[in-house]
Amino acid sequence: MTAQRLAELWSRGTEFLGCEHAILGGAMSWVSERNLVSAISNAGGFGVIACGAMNPELLDTEIRETKARTDRPFGVNLITMHPQLSELIEVCGRHGVGHIVLAGGLPPSGALDKIKSTGAKLIAFAPALSLAKKLMRSGADAIVIEGMEAGGHIGPVSTSVLAQEILPHICEQIPVFVAGGIGRGEAIAAYLEMGAAGVQLGTRFVCATESIAHANFKKAFIRASARDAVPSVQIDPRLPVIPVRALKNKETERFAAKQREIAEHLDGQRLEMAEAQLQIEHYWAGALRRAVIDGDVETGSVMAGQSVGMVTKEQPTAEIIGELVEEAAAALERRR
Ligand SMILES: Cc1cc2nc3c(=O)[nH]c(=O)nc-3n(C[C@H](O)[C@H](O)[C@H](O)COP(=O)(O)O)c2cc1C
């Protein structure tokens, strides 16, 4: 059985997630909603709802609707800087969500304990080994390491370097999922052999048939190559903006203007730094919505990872996962 080695290698990941394939569908704001999330879980992967800027009522509905479409496990991704984080955790708790993924920087005090008190397993992003160890001490049950090849908000270090720096030191103590730049199963096999318990992919799932992303958004993905997915540029060094990887378009200039406007407010002391950063996040949520939902791929933000070049057509989620699994299993078989 060619798939046996694969099943063995990611067994800690599949046991932890409670699914057949240790492939997390990385939460993507506006894209990872009931349809795509349930499709990924139904195909044996692990779908994750992107809560993004949703309020507690909207998240409540989204979880309910996802449950109506799948009886398999799925998770919820919450952003640490969301002003209603505590209420959102309560919504997850009421629904008995089994896994909460916490993204967007170090969580506020109390959030980790609150998540654990709901009974959910906590998955946290670690951008460096020291932070991974800190999160483990604070009670994280699994870690995601995400390199700068990824779509959306990114750190400065590549996936291949993060994997080498982090996996050997913690992969036996905690399940680690590797994300960023994964487009084919051969790469999945390689990270599993390095000690990963599984992987997380976002970009590859955008053009799934079940994804509600606008046809223009999907077309932009299908046309693009790796070099079109570029990180945003920081205009003012006083305003620390986390770079976002997206396809090049007019929106790049708009973001520069937005940064200048916010920096001026900071100069005039009309804005606190925390509020400035929240405004930037709201800006991204709006720009992404324009592209994903309205199909405005010129002035909206077409967030995409470098693996976008490996997205060549619209295809059913089950087919995407099937291809990834087959490629990973075949790569492992060739090593025997
Ligand atoms: C359009 C888009 C939106 C995203 N939104 C979020 C988000 O809301 N929260 C989050 O934690 N990650 C977000 N991500 C990152 C994904 O969850 C995932 O980690 C990433 O896409 C993995 O890298 P890949 O794109 O190379 O597969 C987003 C990615 C994309 C492409």
TrEMBL record:
CDD domains noted in UniProt: NPD_like (cd04730)
GO molecular function term, any single one: monooxygenase activity
InterPro entries registered for this protein in UniProt: Aldolase_TIM, NMO
Keyword Transmembrane helix recorded: no
Xref: SUPFAM superfamilies: Inosine monophosphate dehydrogenase (IMPDH)
Gene3D superfamilies in alphabetical order: Aldolase class I
One Pfam family per UniProt: NMO
Keywords for this protein: Flavoprotein, FMN, Monooxygenase, Oxidoreductase
Keyword flag rRNA-binding: no
Protein name stated in the entry: Nitronate monooxygenase family protein
Species the sequence originates in: Sphingomonas arvum
